[in-house]
Amino acid sequence: MSSNHNWVCFDCRYSKREPKSTNFIPKCNSCKEDLYCLGYKVAIPKKTDLKNWKKLKEDCFKRSMTVLERETINQVKEKHSLEKEEIKPKFIFKN
Ligand SMILES: [Zn+2]
Predict the structure, then answer these.
(1) How many domains does one find in the chain?
(2) How far is the CA of 6 from the centre of ligand 1 (A)?
(3) Can you give the residue range of the structural domain that contains 9?
(4) Predicted confidence (pLDDT) per residue in 42-81, tens digit
(5) Whole-structure pTM over 0.70, yes or no?
């Protein structure tokens, strides 16, 4: 069973239903930008419902920020552990 996902353009408040695929991102009809996949559970506001569109955008932005922050933290952690590896021998010599 292939379920359709909701794809949206926040700027144009355009939405369309397409199955989610890894190699295809639907484009907005108006601005031709990549659409944002909201999944199939999220309700799409009416085109005139500016307030809920704004809320939806903020929610999605927050969600992607959290993912981004987590990724950054992991990268920093990795970097730190690498730096420690490099620094260790020097400290041993100093002490
Ligand atoms: Zn658009």
Answers:
(1) 1
(2) 14
(3) 4-94
(4) 889 999 999 999 999 999 888 887 887 888 888 888 877 7
(5) no
